[in-house]
Amino acid sequence: MTAFHAGEQALQARVGVQAQMAQIGPRVMRDHMPDQHREFFGLLPFVVVGSMDTQGQPWASVLAGAPGFMHAPDPTHLHIHAQPLPHDPLQRTLHEGAALGLLGMQPHTRRRNRMNGTAHLQDGALVVEVGQSFGNCPKYIQAREPSWTPDASATQVIHQGAALDEAARDMIRTADTFFIATAHPQAAAATEARHGVDVSHRGGAPGFVKVEGHRLTVPDFVGNQFFNTLGNIAVHPLAGLLFMDFERGDRLYLAARASVVWDGAELASFAGAQRLLRMEVTQVVHVQGGLPLRWGPAERSPHLAGTGYWPSR
Q: What is the C-alpha separation between 247 and 176, in angstroms, rounded?
C-alpha cells in the first residue's frame, strides 16, 4: 500500500514527483520508530501535537516537560507524561482513540521527526501508538535552544473569538516560526495510517506571514515533496495554527480555512516561494503566559538566504 493518500498524491503529480515519491515513501515512512527516533524524543522538553475536534477542525498544541517526560519503551509506542497546558485546545480534543500528529523538534540542532498515530490514556500518561513515523529535513528551522522552565506566572486568555485582534496580528507579523496541524477527513475513524492527523513546522524571516484583516498568506518553500500538509488541505481544507512567543511564553491558537495558491502576481512577488498557503481565520484563542519553556537567541536558517519578503506598501 502506498504511504501517501489521494490528496498527497495529487500534489505530487502536479509537480511531477509522484513516481519518485511512490518509491521513496515506503522506505522512509515506517510503521515504527527507529532507535534514533526513540532516543531523540527522550531528549526534548516539548513536543507539538496535532489533534482534531468533533467538528473536524484540526488544532495545533504543545506539550512540555523536563527532558525525559517522553520515552519510547518499544518501537511502536511513545509515552508522554504531561498534561495539556491551560486553555490549550488539547484539553478538549484528547480522548481515548483520538488521532494525533506529533512533531518532535530540537531547534538548536535543527533536527525534527514526525509521527502520527492513535492516543491511549493510561495511568495519567498519554501513550501514542505509531501509525507512521518519519524524519524531516532541517530546512527553515531557526536555531534557538529551548529549556524547561516551570512558569508560576498567571495564565489567562487575553482574547478569544472568531476574529484576530491587533495584539494577535502583531504577534503573527513578527513571527519567524509557527506550527500547522491538518487532517485527512477520515482521521477520526481512520483504518489506514496515511489517513491521520499531521502537524508540521513553518519557518521564515520575521514577517514571512502576511496579515490582511483576518487572512494570512504564507510562502511555501521547496521541501521534501511529501506534501503532507498541503495534501491534507486538498481533501480537507481546514488547518490549526500555533504561534508561540519565545520570550514571554504566550501562545496563539488559530483555526482557519485553508487553500493553496499556485500562480499569480502575489506568488511571483515573493522570491523562493513555490506556492502560497492562504488561510482565513475562523477562531482565535490568545493565551498570556503558562508555557513552561524559555528560549535562547535565534540564528536564522541558512536556507532562507534565497527567499524574499513581502513587498512593502
A: 13
**Cα–Cα distance, 88 to 93 (Å, whole number):** 9
Cell readout for 232 is: 491534507
Q: Please choose, from the candidates 118, 260, 119, 236, the residue with its C-alpha nearest in 3D space to the C-alpha of residue 181.
A: 236
Contact 202, 177 (CB under 8 A): yes
Three-state secondary structure call for residue 115: strand
Cβ neighbours for 192, distance < 8 A, ≥ 6 positions apart? 1, 5
Q: 207 in the Ramachandran plot: left (φ > 0), alpha (ψ -120 to 50) or beta?
A: left
Distance between CA 49 and CA 40 in Å, rounded? 16
Number of H helices, E strands in the chain: 7, 17
- Which of 7-21, 99-113, 147-161 is the least confident region? 147-161
Residues 6 or more apart whose CB falls under 8 angstroms from that of 17 comprise: 225
pTM for the model stands at: 0.96
pLDDT digits (tens, 9 = 90+) for 83-103: 999 999 999 999 999 999 999
Q: Report the 3 state secondary structure along 204-249.
A: CCCCCCEEECCEEEEEECCCCCCCHHHHHHHHCCEEEEEEECCCCC
CA distance 265 to 172: 23
pLDDT at 197: 97
